[in-house]
Design brief:
Blueprint lengths: L1 E5 L12 H19 L16 H13 E2 L2 H11 L6 E5 L3 H8 L5 E3 L8 E6 L4 E6 L4 E5 L4 E5 L20 E3 L5 E5 L6 E5 L4 E6 L11 E6 L4 E6 L3 E6 L18 E3 L3 E4 L6 E7 L4 E6 L3 E6 L4 E7 L8 E4 L5 E4 L3 E5 L6 E6 L7 E7 L2 E6 L3 E6 L4 E2 L11 E3 L4 E2 L3 H7 L7 E7 L6 E6 L7 E7 L1
Parallel strand pairs: 12-16
Antiparallel strand pairs: 1-2, 1-3, 4-34, 5-6, 6-7, 7-8, 9-10, 10-11, 11-12, 13-14, 14-15, 15-17, 18-19, 19-20, 20-21, 22-23, 23-24, 24-25, 26-27, 27-28, 28-29, 28-30, 31-34, 32-33, 33-34
Length: 463
């Protein structure tokens, strides 16, 4: 829950200590022990006592002084010296607050009205009060959780409209670089990549299609390798590497009050071998590799240094593999139709199949927060798996009940086909995306109807 460490500034012995004095004390202690253990010669040796190593005792005592996992010690040190000082390092488990709120059923949903938008596919927290998300109707929206105001960010348009005929399939990805200075997302054409500067949301550049472009089909996901390099995966089975220079020269605009942006081409574009339609992509920082998930049931590993494909592995399930997440330790989580698969990053062997508590619901989104695996389903339920306990998180108020958040219905366009469906089946939205705020005490969830032919949306803020 907490960790406190004291850092030695100079030496490991008091200033008055000298080698001669310490050696003299050791000899005196050894003589005292020998005198104490001395016994008559005729006594049988049925019990023998061995002296412990003084170096080991000293080392153990130093470790005991250096580290403490007590939350009380953490609070005492923080009260004494403030939240940070050079002598003592303090750390609190990142999911401690989230775990407490979930097990005590403290999260309450606040429904967000999105009007007539269609299906939210991706989301990210820009700050402690703003969330950016992308929709199927090609809108990039910013929601202020304090004022409850929605603002639309203009989509970037390329020099020529190329790509698939139905080029506007929605914004499927929104990713922020490690320094939180750039946001990468989709453009007006869903085959292109748009980059905005944070926090102003000014356009920086557009990675477009064309003869020298990267993708000829929809971009489904992206991931940042560092503050400059971005990797994108597309339905055309290709993976592209981009370099985003924030100091790119900007063309002179005809009107000074109209923002302008640069058009860029990828550094490298490669086919993902053994793949059919790259659906999800993520960067594994612990192993310095890029993992891609394809709809034909394969996971593909790329070397992040030379941008070369290392291996591909067939997953046990090839049905509806649509989401991929990675833990800080490097472990992968793949969302399938009826369970979440945990993979060992060294061998890609399955570690555990986490079955869904709802049969055939479909796993639509997944994320790690420390040792908490958050799972968004196609039936409007958010589940929480405890990796330490090896089971779904249980409520502290009722031990027989597992923790789950059930989303509200949202909004669906009332066409005749939907009315026929809803008469026989209780409608629930699919949770296509979810994200925690920096403190882990607020959770944004969004999505919409699961059937592709239904038009509607859902968004909620849990706090």
């Amino acid at each position: 829950m907490a960790s406190s460490r004291k850092i030695t500034i100079y030496g490991n012995k008091p200033a008055c200590a000298s080698s001669a004095r310490l050696e003299e004390r050791r000899r005196a202690a050894a003589a005292a022990r020998s005198e104490k253990d001395r016994k008559p010669d005729n006594k049988p040796d049925d019990f023998i006592r061995y002296e412990d190593s003084e170096e080991e005792d000293e080392e153990c005592s130093m470790q005991a002084v250096k580290y403490s996992n007590s939350f009380v010690d953490y609070l005492n040190i923080r009260e004494r010296n403030g939240s940070y000082n050079a002598i003592e390092r303090l750390r609190v488990s990142c999911e401690h607050g989230t775990r407490h709120m979930l097990t005590h059923e403290m999260f309450k949903e606040h429904n967000i009205k999105l009007g007539n938008m269609n299906k939210v596919f991706c989301s990210q927290w820009l700050s402690d009060r703003q969330v950016v998300f992308g929709t199927k109707c090609n809108k990039i929206m910013v929601y202020d959780v304090v004022t409850q105001k929605l603002d639309q960010i203009p989509s970037l348009v390329g020099r020529r409209e190329q790509g698939p005929a139905d080029g506007q399939c929605g914004i499927h990805a929104a990713q922020i670089n490690p320094s939180r200075s750039l946001l990468a997302t989709g453009a007006r054409n869903s085959s292109e990549v748009a980059v905005y500067r944070l926090p102003t949301m000014d356009p920086v550049c557009l990675g477009e299609v064309g003869e020298n472009g990267a993708h000829g089909d929809w971009v489904f996901d992206m991931c940042w390798l560092d503050d400059q390099f971005l990797v994108s995966g597309s339905r055309d089975t290709r993976i592209a590497l981009w370099r985003i220079r924030d100091e790119l020269p900007v063309k002179e605009a005809e009107a000074t009050d109209v923002p302008n942006y640069k058009t860029i081409v990828p550094v490298s574009v490669k086919d993902c071998k053994s793949a059919q339609k790259v659906r999800a992509i993520t960067y594994n920082k612990a192993f310095e590799e890029v993992a891609a998930l394809s709809l034909n049931g394969f996971i593909h590993i790329w070397n992040a240094h030379n941008f070369k494909q290392k291996l591909s592995r067939k997953l046990p399930s090839c049905q509806e593999n649509v989401c991929l997440a990675v833990q800080d330790t490097g472990m992968y989580a793949v969302g399938c139709r009826s369970y979440t698969l945990l993979l060992d990053p060294r061998t890609l062997q399955p570690i555990k199949k986490v079955p869904s508590r709802y049969s055939g619901c479909g796993i639509r989104s997944a994320s790690f927060l420390g040792d908490i695996l958050t799972i968004g389903t196609g039936v409007g339920v958010l589940m929480f798996y405890d990796l330490k306990a090896g089971k779904y998180m249980e409520s502290s108020l009722n031990q027989t009940r597992t923790v789950a958040l059930k989303a509200s219905k949202g909004w669906v366009y009332p066409d005749e086909e939907f009315m026929d469906v809803i008469q026989h089946i209780k409608y629930t939205p699919a949770i296509y995306t979810h994200c925690y705020d920096p403190s882990g005490t607020r959770l944004f969830t969004a999505g919409g109807p699961l059937p592709a032919n239904l038009y509607g949306n859902y968004a909620g803020l849990w706090q």
